[in-house]
Specification:
Elements lengths: L10 E10 L4 E11 L4 E12 L1 H14 L6 E6 L2 H8 L2 H7 L13 H11 L3 E6 L7 H21 L1
Parallel strand pairs: 1-4, 4-5
Antiparallel strand pairs: 1-2, 2-3
Length: about 160
């Protein structure tokens, strides 16, 4: 659901990742929010005691989009095919048309998070970029380290 670029909007980059120990299990998400023109970077993270990797991938993007205070032009960079394909392959449009059912008429998993993501994305112009995970991309590695640290913190609190 990429829209045409509005140069009047601030440009931000979001590098997002999720991490889970077991699937389901304790999980964390991490993100780097970068506004190059303002020379601003912000690191965000969070965790849940019992979750899945896909849910953490979604929460990384959702939470970072929700942190934006004004409509922006956004590049979301993630190693999650689950998220990128949902937009680039029009899965979302089909899910909406089919009443949140997949092509095989099964309920869409994580539907409440997909709805939240659509709400968080609505004010923004977003380009979705997939990159290979754990391939030495510095910002993706940082997002991953934030996600793992958040996961470890919640695991340690649960002991």
């Amino acid at each position: 659901m990429t829209k045409s670029v509005d140069k009047a909007r601030p440009f931000v980059q979001i590098y997002a990742d999720g991490a889970c120990s077991g699937n389901p299990g304790p999980g964390g998400w991490g993100a780097l929010l970068r506004a190059p023109a303002a020379n601003v970077e912000k690191r965000l993270s969070g965790a849940e005691k019992n979750t899945t990797n896909n849910r953490m991938e979604l929460m990384a993007v959702i939470s970072t989009l929700e942190a934006l205070n004004v409509p922006c032009t956004v590049e979301v960079v993630t190693d999650s095919r689950y998220i990128v394909d949902a937009f680039q392959k029009n899965w979302i449009r089909n899910w909406l048309r089919n009443g949140w059912k997949t092509a095989s008429r099964q309920p869409v998993k994580n539907v409440e998070l997909w709805k939240r993501l659509l709400d968080a994305a609505a004010p923004h112009q977003i380009a979705w970029t997939w990159i290979r995970g754990h391939a030495g991309h510095p910002e993706n590695e940082l997002a991953d380290s934030l996600a793992v640290a958040a996961r470890l913190e919640i695991e340690n609190k649960s002991r």
